[in-house]
Amino acid sequence: MRPKLILGGLVAVAMMAGAASAQEPAPAAAGLQTGPATIAPHWTKNTAFPTAIPEGATYYIVVRGDTLWDVSARFLKNAYLWPQIWNENKYVKDAHWIYPGDPLVLPKVALIAEQAGQAPPTGEPEGLAPEAGPGIPGMVAPGEGEAGAAAAALGPVTEELSLQCAHYVVNQREDESLHVVGGDEGYDKIALADRDIVYLNKGSNAGVKAGDLYSLHHVAYTVKHPVTGRKIGTKIETTGWVKVILVQENTACAVIEQACLDVHAGDYLKPFEKVNVPMVVRRAPEDCCGTESGKVLRHVVDLQDDAAIGGTGQFVTIDAGTEDGVAPGTVFSLYRIMYPSVPTPRSVVGEATVVAVRERTSTAKITYSRKEIMLGDQVQLR
């Protein structure tokens, strides 16, 4: 049985994590419910909300004044787990805004760290915090009390474009049946980029429609554990996304709206999913010779672009995922033992924050590095 990681390092601000704002009366349902269920039509900017809840799923209907912070505190018994609720409800485009009538499916939460839920330490934001101010229900302007001070330090882990283009590792290969045949310039142009026209191998008979948005991907290589040598999964690189502009029965044309890498014939397509960028408070990194707590023994198993070493701003893959209780916003310290045979104290080499999670792996961005980051470096939850 895989050991469960103790979830920690999730920090957020109560009044900045999902403020609900609406002018409609609150629905009657105000507690936890269990599917199956049909969701009533309602006004919301989260227009892609699910119209049905599957059987056995636990859900909550948002009422006036709710925030993701409050819902997490009430039902998960820990307000700092709000990113797990956000990750479970991807139709919510911005964690600052949920609306009366929106259904929130509650995640199954693993073990919680003892320190989770403590007051977040002060620090500078990694990015600009969303602007808050009067007139927005449930939000506090920076400087208005303790919540306002914390809000001023809240910032995104990364910019949206880099996260949308990030690689990931899968256990099982994805559906690669819909793919790019080539570009409209034929063999004269092999590497395709922004605004180029591409041909697809399927059309209306396969459900492709004009206006559909698809992300582009290709299989990179097999990822093996740098310590044990066992197979972790298959690395998938995101090469961009396209919009379908013309459809025939067995083929279609699409325009490349964004190229993350060179696009080639054979790249496969998946329905586009907009990413949610985690919001965190930056804290002072651990000392270079920090004391090991014994909570975690996981590793960096892959680096962005198959690099030999990594540093601040790059993405890494860690061999821990939702099965271990990891969620977007989880912060890991990166370290290595310089002389394992002695052994010497661990040397902290950096810090990484999780931005996307799968069952057994997670993608994290290196937010701080004091040395080069390498395959096999160990990780520990902060």
Give the biggest beta sheet: 7 strands, antiparallel
Distance N terminus to C terminus? 23 Å
Tally of separate helices: 4
Based on CA inertia axes, which overall geometry fits? globular
Describe the protein:
The chain is mostly beta strands and 382 residues long. The protein has 4 helices and 22 strands. The strands form 6 sheets. Strands 9, 10, 11, 12, 13, 14 and 15 form a 7-stranded antiparallel sheet that branches. A hairpin with a 4-residue loop joins strand 20 and strand 21. Helix 1 packs across helix 2. The longest helix is centred in the N-terminal third of the chain and has 8 residues. The two termini are 23 Å apart.
Helix-strand blueprint:
Blueprint (H helix, E strand, L loop, with lengths): L18 E2 L11 E3 L2 E2 L13 E2 L4 E4 L6 H8 L6 H7 L8 E2 L4 E3 L39 H8 L1 E3 L3 H5 L3 E3 L9 E4 L13 E4 L12 E12 L6 E17 L4 E8 L8 E4 L7 E3 L16 E6 L11 E4 L12 E7 L8 E12 L4 E8 L8 E4 L1
Parallel strand pairs: 1-6
Antiparallel strand pairs: 2-5, 3-4, 5-7, 8-16, 9-13, 10-11, 11-14, 12-13, 12-15, 13-14, 17-18, 17-22, 18-21, 19-20, 19-22, 20-21
Helix pairs in contact: 1-2
Quick summary of this structure?
The two termini are 23 Å apart. 7% of the residues lie in helices and 31% in strands.
